[in-house]
Write a structure and sequence with these properties.
By secondary structure, the chain is an all-alpha fold. It contains eight helices and no strands. It is globular, with a radius of gyration of 17 Å. The chain starts with a helix and ends with a helix.
């Protein structure tokens, strides 16, 4: 049996340890998704907490026959991010990213030089992603940074797989152009 499904069943039986295990398993992924969309760690932390409140409140509606738990959580996160964007777009500049915020990256391995290079690559990627339209950015993030497959992305975004593939292709091309312009 899927470990997430077992944890969900235990959560529904009000076992606190099961809820904590689900949080530990999925928080990093949801936080990264929120961070990639907002570019600000404080906003990403708040949004991550709000996403898990929604997950907790709607946990009994989760249907394992419809999607994997991670996909279901990603869909809730994506919908919450869209709602957040709609609520706040009037009082913020969406393309502004805080360059001083640390970037979640586990690839440094302790070497200071490689750590700096990794940080520079991450910042460049974040800047490039910020130049994409929200539709293209979310498709690229879900595929290339969150490692969801096409079917899972289609479920999360509630669009056909063909549209997912098209958005990922266009998003990657636009991202490559943006990154190339930054190298000049």
């Amino acid at each position: 049996m899927d470990s997430d499904l077992e944890l969900v069943k235990r959560c529904l039986r009000r076992e606190d340890a099961a809820w904590e295990a689900l949080l530990q398993t999925h928080t990093y992924r949801v936080y990264n998704l929120c961070y990639r969309f907002t570019g600000r760690s404080e906003d990403a932390e708040d949004l991550t907490q709000e996403v898990f409140i929604k997950v907790f409140r709607t946990l009994k509606s989760y249907d394992p026959l419809q999607a994997k738990f991670a996909t279901w959580v990603s869909r809730i996160a994506r919908n919450h991010l869209v709602d957040h964007y709609r609520r706040t777009r009037g009082d913020r500049v969406t393309s502004v990213l805080d360059d001083q915020m640390p970037i979640a990256d586990a690839s440094s391995g302790g070497n200071p030089e490689s750590s700096v290079e990794s940080r520079e690559r991450s910042e460049k990627l974040r800047t490039g992603l910020s130049k994409l339209s929200p539709d293209l950015r979310e498709a690229v993030i879900l595929r290339d940074l969150q490692d969801l497959d096409y079917a899972e992305i289609a479920q999360v975004l509630q669009i056909p797989e063909g549209t997912v593939k098209s958005r990922i292709n266009r998003g990657r091309l636009e991202l490559a152009r943006a990154l190339k312009r930054m190298d000049k």
